[in-house]
Design the sequence.
């Protein structure tokens, strides 16, 4: 099992550009989430999904879109990148929230 | 304001010492999880506690969930340099919305 796979690992964007961060899991997990990690602030929840076709907003959703067309994939879209979106992004999945999440290795995004 | 407050933010100790990290909130959680994160990697789950008052042990690590399910602690006995890392607590609310504390960065010196 590969677990949770995130691509790309590193990305540099110019302000105003759009891009999609990919996340795929092969564990047949129902729940998937996106977090961003900034120094001194821990991980903040952007969007999450409790199953295919169902998504919801977390605490910092502005500027990001998600969709969940399959159980395996949960892409995160940046609509118009801003320097404030410079961060490390983590995707995570679990079969049930109380079981604990498996995290990907992260995408380090820099917006200049 | 963080939903979960972790303390201390930084901790530097000598090998062999004991330590306790705290995770506090005013919210009630269906479960509370502890993760450890190494530089350049994603967090790795250490333990999940779901019952108020629950105590779980993982070798030299002891985790406790508060009776009211609002707080938790992590105690490490005889810390080793391999315990160095960022320790994160995370609380799950009933809609599977999981929020993290800011973390405790632990350094154990040989």
Sequence:
């Amino acid at each position: 099992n590969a677990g949770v796979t995130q691509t790309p690992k590193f990305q540099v964007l110019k302000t105003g550009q759009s891009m999609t961060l990919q996340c795929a899991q092969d564990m047949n997990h129902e729940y998937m989430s996106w977090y961003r990690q900034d120094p001194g602030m821990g991980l903040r929840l952007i969007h999450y999904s409790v199953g295919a076709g169902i998504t919801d907003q977390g605490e910092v959703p502005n500027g990001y879109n998600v969709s969940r067309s399959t159980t395996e994939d949960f892409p995160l879209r940046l609509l118009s990148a801003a320097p404030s979106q410079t961060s490390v992004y983590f995707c995570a999945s679990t079969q049930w929230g109380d079981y604990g999440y498996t995290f990907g290795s992260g995408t380090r995004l820099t917006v200049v | 304001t963080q939903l979960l407050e972790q303390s201390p933010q930084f901790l530097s100790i000598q090998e062999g010492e004991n330590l306790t990290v705290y995770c506090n909130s005013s919210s009630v959680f269906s479960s509370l999880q502890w993760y450890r994160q190494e530089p350049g990697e994603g967090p790795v789950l250490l333990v999940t506690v779901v019952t108020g008052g629950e105590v779980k042990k993982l070798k030299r690590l002891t985790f406790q969930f508060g009776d009211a399910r609002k707080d938790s602690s992590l105690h490490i006995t005889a810390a080793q340099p391999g315990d160095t890392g960022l320790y994160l607590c995370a609380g799950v609310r009933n809609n599977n919305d999981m929020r993290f504390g800011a973390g405790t960065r632990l350094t154990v010196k040989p």
Summary: Chain A has no helices and eleven strands.
